[in-house]
Design goal:
Belongs to the Orn/Lys/Arg decarboxylase class-II family. The protein is built from 12 helices and 20 strands. By secondary structure, the protein is of the alpha/beta class. α2 packs across α3, α4 runs parallel beside α5 and α7 packs across α8. It is elongated. The structure holds pyridoxal-5'-phosphate (PLP). The site of pyridoxal-5'-phosphate has 18 residues, from α10.
Amino acid sequence: MRTYHTPLDLVRERSPERPVALVRRDAVAVAARWFQTNFKGEVLYAVKANPSPWVVETLVQSGVTGFDVASIAEIELVARHAPGARMAFMHPVKSRAAISAAYFDHGVKTFSFDTHEELEKIIDATGGAKDLNLIVRMGVSADGAAYSLSGKFGVDSHQAPALMLAARRATQELMGVSFHVGSQCMRPTAFQAAMAQTGRALVRAGVFADVIDVGGGFPSVYPGMIPPDMADYIAAIDRGFNEMPVSETTELWCEPGRALVAESTSLMTRVELRKGDALYLNDGAYGSLFDAAHAKWPFPVKGYRGGADGRELEGGLKPFSFYGPTCDSIDYMPGPFLLPEDIREGDFVEIGMLGAYGVAMRTDFNGFGAVETVEVGDAPMASMFGLARRSIPAPRTAIENVVKLPRAKSKKRRRR
Ligand SMILES: *Cc1c(COP(=O)(O)O)cnc(C)c1O
């Protein structure tokens, strides 16, 4: 990967024709070390948030040895770039061939499921293996999240005890429970509530779980979505764990995706046309801007003038919306994105905080999929881990109108 000191250096040197992903290894390393230090259990990275090889390698170098995978392609990726790492196949619906290949070819022993049928499928496809770690996926409330992950997966509280019992009987290794409070969870107490709900189901089942897996959902920081301190999430999980019916040997796991990678990557796009306060960019909804289009998140931006004497644009900010390069009218990002009012065709817009579910979502639709990746050495535009050099302007109203975020209670930082 080519390296530039700053995004501005890239613009000055090359005024790139195609969009360029700007990656910061340090941002992933710092987030990973924060989780390793503060989370009192095992950290498994949810690969789907950003399956770039450099992410997997940076995580391994930062001490992360567990990966939450959902497909054979993700398993092969981790096997290639993190040989020997532990993998957990946490997709609750898998093909028999995928289960067999995971178990027999890649040594994957941890599987999740939310039905008796899937549990039987796992046992069948592993040839009646007795050394499986079997994780029951619970359905929990996603009240505090910007993206729900509970509508599709998770056994409800009434059916959970029978499934927990069946799992307990099916293995001599670990039986566990997992849930996902929803992505970009703005309320730390959502974790505690989900743990309480899971604990009640365990009591009804009359079993101890060997693993409590609190899933992902740890937030990043975007304009208009400033979550409580990450330490508050750890504190809520600690309280939840202490209130659960667990034994001394019960393990605590988490599966962060977004929080480990969101800050790391920004995208350098070019303005191909300006029409009033709409900018037509060379990347969009079918590229790295899925969330900007579909969830209408107003990501943080910076403007640059290209050429050898290029510079970061400064001065009076004005709200803009973006159109992407495809011919589809869905390819529209309403923003508002605050940029200097003199921005024009040929200028560049760097869009920040796209490391999670941004670069991972690209398609080749309409011939616009290509993106180059380079490394940069500047700080991310915003940070949950104290990395950012400036805070981001926050057009609060836009995001709240769309995702109807619950008001997070303000909290003092807790110290243990
Ligand atoms: C997507 C996913 C995650 C990661 O979620 P984030 O919100 O990115 O932290 C973790 N676990 C499972 C099972 C998932 O599907």
